[in-house]
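Quick one, T. Sequence first:
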Amino acid sequence: MADRRVGNGWLALVAAILIMMGLLSCTPQGDPGDPGPPSPTVTVPEPSETVPVDPVPTVGTPPPKPSATPTRVPSATPTLVPTGTPPPEPSDGGTPPPGERSQEILDRCFEGKLAFRPPSPLQQGDVVEFVVRVALSTSPVDPATGLPGSGEPTRRQPPICERMSADLTSSGGVTIERASSELISIPQRGAGEWAWHLTAVESGQHEMVLRLLAPDPEGGTITVETFRETITVEIGLMYVVSKWIQEMAPPLQALLGIIVILGGWALFLFTRRRRRAKHTAKARPEH
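Structure tokens:
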């Protein structure tokens, strides 16, 4: 019995070994030269340009500051606005505001020189010529040369444009009559001038205001004042009687002629009557 059990055990061991060898033979063995199935690889994507997304700020946390340096925006040129007027409304880009256009007109002007002789003093009733002359600072002409009047000329250095107009006004006491063109062109090598006739009407101290104006060279409606000066005029009272005599001289002369003629005729008649009376008295016979 023992030998039989031992033999069965060996048979079972051999059977187990054979079964294991069969299972191993069924398992596919790789060829030593075959690299075998490909091993899994991890593909790393190429870096692509991504748009950073700002993180959503949490409540109570300030938003993060931008890392890039901001571009500085150039400041706009200030608009010149006259005192007391509201600022102009934004333009649509076609026409600049009045203040900006005025500055553009002034930028086209040049340094100039101006001269005039003040008309003071005057006597009531005097009529004089008042001339204002201007030239560019590069002109060889002296604007004070040959000005009418007496005394030292007044000199100024206002901005002068290619085309200018002048205005002369009075608050009273002086009658002003223009004697030249209002708008003139200023030559580069010469001078331009304006003239007025002034009549002293009322005695006392009076003021005149002289203004130089530059029109829009492109034909616009804007006119820019480049110069302003107040001129004092003294008018005396020594004229009243002499002026009345001058005005009344023609009728007085005619009246005096009539008086002389009538007086001569009356004297002739009186003399003739006396002679007739004497002749009649001599011709009477004596009794």
